Structure formats: structure tokens, C-alpha cells
Fold this sequence. Notes:
CATH architecture of the largest domain: Alpha-Beta Complex
Strand content: 15-25%
Largest sheet: 8 strands, mixed
Radius of gyration: 21 Å
Order of helices and strands: HHHHEEEHHEHHEHEEHHHEHH
Distance between the termini: 54 Å
Shape: globular
Amino acid sequence: MRSYLEFEKPVADLEGRAHELRSMAQQDKNVDLSQEIERLEAKARDTLADLYSKLTPWHKTQVARHPDRPHFKDYLSAFITEFTPLAGDRYFAEDYAVIAGLGRFDGESVAVIGQEKGSDTESRLKHNFGMARPEGYRKAVRIMELADRFSIPLITLVDTAGAYPGVGAEERGQAEAIARSTEMSLRIGVPMISVIIGEGGSGGAIAIATANRVNMLEHAIYSVISPEAGASILWRDATRAQDVATAMKITAQDLKELGVIDEIIAEPVGGAHRGREEVMEATASIIRSDLKELSGLSPEELRTQRRNKFLAIGRTIS
């Protein structure tokens, strides 16, 4: 069964009625309900299109967190072949929130790093809902160093509410691990391309998204703090998350205008989960285009471009 968000209730009602009629028609072959089913499905499509044409930042936050939304492993299967995962940080342990390794994109060698949230209760617990501990970021640094050493382009797919804030993670140097990962992103001399596929939360996201090209899916979000946490800090009231989501400019459209991201990857009406193949193809296409554009740059040019890109964020001209 398809999952619906709260604001999608009108669509859920229409599609539910169409499903009921379809079941009735299958049980009684003498009843022709095809016209009514088509009418309901057409109305559901129009209603969905209308809702998604005027999404608020809070609605986009909900879409970015949709339980059926494609996750890192889906993209990995779609356009990375011969993927070989590399585990552990060589210091403490393996972190399952971050998946990293080597594979091929269009037949060419690439390094890949991504955050996996999981798709059911068991996998979500295993991957800690995509919230990495220090080991995850130190593993990311390992892969970045390998990519740099062997001159292999790096692709990162970001989907995390943020780095894990547990006591153990803090004791093992969470902030330092994030800083080291961000530093290594700036240091490597190979093309680095990042795509925000769902949530891009705080330092947990920027640690693997300090790239030459940063792209976002149309209904993804990218922010310094979650709307709920921001509301709790500012007003001690998490229910004002909608206000914070609007004020922080966390949508792809706002961030493109501000120069924080480079390109927006279109999603099907209703979100990425309603057209997985379409989204995978669009994501692969923009990665392909970015790799082609960056392939002619020298290591020093790549470093300079990357650093200048991030230094320019927030700069105003008087």
C-alpha cells in the first residue's frame, strides 16, 4: 500500500475509492466501472499536480522524509556497477549509516559515498536512520584519500537528518570527525560531485558534500539544523517547525537562488517515490554532465574551484 503524507489526504481519498471500485469490478465481471475508475484516477492526478505546484517549505520537508522515497542503495543499484563496499574506519568500528566504496559509472572507475536511512524497521535500526557516528566520517575520509591517490572521481549522495548526537559519538570525537571529512573534501584533487537526494542535515551532510558540484532533487531539503530543532531552540516550541522551515530557506529553489547549490534535479509529480526510474535517470544524467565538465581540470584547479565556491556563499557585493 502507498503511504500518504498529511497534506496528500485528498489524493489518498480519491485513489482509495478508485482502488475499491477496481476490486469490485474484479469480483463481479458483469459490472463495468471503468469510466468511474478513470474519472477518479484523473481527478487524483489533477489534485496531486495542484498540491505539488504550491508546496510550502514544510511540505517539502515532509516529502524529503517520505518513507517510500528512494534511498542511497536504490541509486547505487541504478547507476553504479561492480560496486565494492569498503568497511571500517581503521580506528574503532564499522558505521552502517555511511556506505562507501569503489565502483563504475558509465564503465569508468569512481569512488562512492552515501548515507543510507533504511527502508524498514530492521534496516533503519541497522543504518541508524542515516545518522552517522564518527566512524562513518572517518570511513568517508579513507575513501576520499583512496580516490585522490588513484585519481578517481568521487560521487557522494547525501540523505541524513544530521550526524548522530549520542554520548558515545561525542566521546569519540564527532565534531572532529566531521571537520576532518570536510577538510579532506576540500583537499582532494579529483572531481567531487554531490547530490542531496533527501535530507541534507547540518554538518552531517556538509562533511561529504563540500564538492565541486552540489545538486539537489527538487523536493529535497538542505539546512544547518532540522526545522523541529530550530523551533525548539528559538521558541522552545517544536510545533513551530513550519515557521522555521520557511525562514531558513531550506528548499532547492531557495538554495539555487542563494548560490548554495548548482542545479535542481526535477522530480515526478508527487515526489521521487512516484517515479523512481525517472529520478534515477535524471540524477545519473546530471552526474554524467558534471563529470564531463570537470574532467579537464587539473588537481589544483579542482581544489581552487571548490574552495572558491564555498568561500563565495553568503558574500554580498555593495
